[in-house]
Amino acid sequence: MRKFFPAIVLMLTLALPLGAGESSRSASCLPLHSLSPKKLAFQAGESLDFVFHYNWGIINADVARGSFTADSSRLKKKDVFLVRMFGRTAKFYDAFFKVREDFHSWFTCDGLVPMRFTRDTREGGYYCLNEYAFVHGANPHIAATIENSNLPQKSMEIPLGDCTFDPLTLLYLARNVDMSRVKPDVKIPMTFAIDDEVFNIYFVFKGKDTCKLPGIGTVGTLKFAIKVVAGEMFGDASEDLFMWFSDDEGKVPVYLEAPLKIGKVTGRLEKYSGLKYPLNLK
User: Fold this and answer.
1) pLDDT in tens, 59-85
2) pTM of the predicted model, to two decimals?
3) C-alpha to C-alpha distance for 145 and 84, rounded to whole angstroms
């Protein structure tokens, strides 16, 4: 159970298409639209709220909520976005297994270059803390401080490749992907770092679709199959995780469907505000 709730809250950040910007550090990734501030797919003040639903046997209920907010800030004399992801179990399930996930990411407004990332996870009696400082230049790496209930605090260097990001920077970078340059059914790799590990997975564009969202309406979407690695959180490696993004300039994540080792989780956009571009409502 300690891995279940973090899995459904993290789905939106771990299962996203990776693209490349105009900067040299992203040259080997999938091409994106311009990453200049005026042309980005999002803006400061955007807020997205999600509901996560779990189905297994007689259990068929909304079990957790997650929110993403983007604000403007300053870090090391640079204009940056400060993005926060906060996830929590629904009040009813707090009595059985209380979870709070609090992620923060700082990345530049021009180019979306990651600069800092923090994670504060509380799951029942378990906790996990991450503190990343992204070091760019001749010796690129992530200066990381990691600690959890089973591991005393340690400092380490994590390799920083051209296409390695923290989960939140990856999410907001991916929303700027140039779909005219993405071919259906072609595997696109991506890499993200979390805790003391670097993960490599890939996605496949499956075409256009629609999603009906309660309280919002029918949204025109882009559907992706996400190839995941079987492990503690996910089920059979042959099963895909599916994500739907709005088919518009904002490419807002609106729905997900994922197999777990036990049962299946879905997530849906429940509420939004501050979008830079209108949602593609049918």
Assistant:
1) 789 989 999 999 999 999 999 999 999
2) 0.87
3) 19
